[in-house]
């Protein structure tokens, strides 16, 4: 390695400080977004209790694949982190009300919904369909859905890009 090569590897302090500030600002923007999301959820919950409204829920959709030419969504994605999921577990566990909302929402709009989880070693993808999830009530009264791992399509990074996402994007 020549001296010129070494100089190219070294970033000046000003550029490094600028990059650090940009990173901190990006993290702070994310945190403020989470805070606003939580505060709005709390406001809705307060209004629901105050006006005795029990039949509504508030759900988010992580990602929307949107076709600008047609002016409509083409797919919805719920992306989760489940590093602890192992092949021997049999199922991945999710919140039942959100799953049911996404199942109904996709069916109503005629747009596919995918649950995607990132494990330590791979991506697992389920297309949300009637009959896929098993619903279970826990001892504390909370209802969860179990998605069978055997029904998930497993992908590594390259397969996500070159199989799943390529096929999804080719439709549009």
Index terms:
172 residues; alpha+beta; five-stranded mixed β-sheet; single chain; 8 strands; globular; three-stranded antiparallel β-sheet; Trna Endonuclease, Chain: A, domain 1; 4 helices
Can you give me a brief rundown of this structure?
This protein is an alpha+beta fold. The chain contains 4 helices and 8 strands.
Contiguous runs where pLDDT drops below 50 for at least 5 residues: none
**If helices are DSSP runs of H or I spanning 4 or more residues, what is the number of helices?**
4
Secondary structural class: alpha+beta
Classify the helix fraction into a percent range.
40-55%
Q: What does this protein structure show overall?
A:
- There is one protein chain.
- By secondary structure, this protein is α+β, with helices and mostly antiparallel strands.
- The protein folds into two domains: 3-50; 63-170, Trna Endonuclease, Chain: A, domain 1 (3-Layer(aba) Sandwich).
- 42% of the residues lie in helices and 26% in strands.
- The chain contains four helices and eight strands, in the order ααβββαβββββα.
- The protein has helices at 3-9, 13-50, 96-109, 157-170, and strands at residues 63-67, 72-81, 91-95, 113-118, 123-127, 134-137, 143-148, 153-155.
- The longest helix is centred in the N-terminal third of the chain and has 38 residues, at 13-50.
- The relative contact order is 0.11.
- The mean pLDDT is 88.
